[in-house]
Amino acid sequence: MGPKAAEARTRTPLTRERVLQAASDLADRDGLEALTMRALADALGVEAMSIYYHLPNKDAILDGVVELTFTEVGTEAHGRGTGRSQADAAGWAPAVRERILGARRVLLRHPWAPVVIDQRKSFSPAMVRHVDGIVGIMREAGMSHDLIHHSLHAIGNRIYGYVQELSDDGQAPPPGQLDEMQSFAPNLAAMLADVAHVDPESTLGWCDDQTEFEFGLDLLLEGIERRRLAEAAA
Amino acid sequence: MGPKAAEARTRTPLTRERVLQAASDLADRDGLEALTMRALADALGVEAMSIYYHLPNKDAILDGVVELTFTEVGTEAHGRGTGRSQADAAGWAPAVRERILGARRVLLRHPWAPVVIDQRKSFSPAMVRHVDGIVGIMREAGMSHDLIHHSLHAIGNRIYGYVQELSDDGQAPPPGQLDEMQSFAPNLAAMLADVAHVDPESTLGWCDDQTEFEFGLDLLLEGIERRRLAEAAA
DNA sequence: GAAAGAAACCTCACGTTGTAAGGTGAACAG
DNA sequence: CTGTTCACCTTACAACGTGAGGTTTCTTTC
């Protein structure tokens, strides 16, 4: 009713990019479940339905933020000195490793991204580019397409810099629950008790996510390297 | 109002188990997104709110169906001849492998389960028991708790018989999209084109999910075995 | 049998979600 | 001045999970 003149401020018009950036920021700050159309509109100083003028629906927004995240992955890879140059036969594994850890660094800043990625199994161009870079490195090491293909599947989620949940906050199991576990899962209980004691004040609660990630990654890369050598010998 | 006498049929009363079984069946048949309180109640011949008498909320139902699925995994493991007996130092890997592939067989019958598991990261007793069995096998092979711990993380999702999406229907990418990809992801495009041609009438569209799963699993098991030998030598 | 009490189920309603349909005001073209 | 187009808003709806409280059905006790 009122002349609400105060909001006639040179309001920068919405764009696809501004919406997606706001969506990413909102998810970073308040979590994925807080990313609703109304909340997003609110963050943009706009009504919910206005967003639909720039993006068809919420799925497009989810696809969009994943795309945006992997654009970030792309710049992360360029920043480091991991050019294609050192991707000879010997150095392919470290090169791939660095690419993957780079992606992981970005994804750690957007913990909601993994969730969106594999609940929507989105394939954005930026994502494809990331995979393509890794394929390129492997190809330059002389691996067959078949071996590369299997290897991508083997590495799985890890290509994108995560596996399972990132923000797992690997915290120690409550002692009460561990006692209960002793009765029907003695091996697991023993392991947990043992491992928790080894380094009581580790970086995280009781297991360092990054270490685990790299352990698994290296296991795979070693195995792939052995397959590559077998292939080269044939 | 009406005397609705027809429905006075000896209706078996709801129980937690009946609800969970119906939920699992419903998800099997119509997919996870079809598993709503109202639809579930309908399948049970009951109103939605009646379910709340037996289960506190929907999360409890999701936890419950995962539990139920892993009970199935437990019986699957017992059926096979993969007792602890052959879990000596040499045979630990095949034993673990069989346990994992057994879990996979079950999870393939419930494609929604992986989604629920890692979107809710549920830890049911039956799930814990499954992991415990694997820890037991590794322990009997003389591995340290530390190595076992790392190994579990390395295997990751695969412990539960899946990785990423199960019902991926790994079908060939549409040729149009592949052409477009050629411009900005040449390595990937080349690989896809190449691999698709190798065996045109494979079991699945163009890559066999089971083969990929086992490839990755074996890569990891081999690597772990080498770590175990290194540990034993020390 | 009847009456009391508990157990099992239902009705109604609310808040939240994504989004279809269509309205409103500003900028601009003729 | 008049229409068209763009950008945004208002209203509304169906589907979701679920709180509050009413109603039916079964069981127990006399």
Automatic annotation (TrEMBL), chains A, B:
Keywords from the named record: DNA-binding, Repressor, Transcription, Transcription regulation
Top-level taxonomic group: Bacteria
First and last residue of the signal peptide: none
Sequence ranges assigned to domain HTH tetR-type in this UniProt record: 13-73
Annotated GO biological process: negative regulation of DNA-templated transcription; response to antibiotic
Pfam families: TetR_C_1, TetR_N
GO MF term (any one): DNA-binding transcription factor activity
DNA-binding region per UniProt: 36-55
Family annotation (InterPro entries): Homeodomain-like_sf, HTH-type_TetR-like_transc_reg, HTH_TetR, Repressor_TetR_C, Tet_transcr_reg_TetR, Tet_transcr_reg_TetR-rel_C_sf
Protein name: TetR family transcriptional regulator
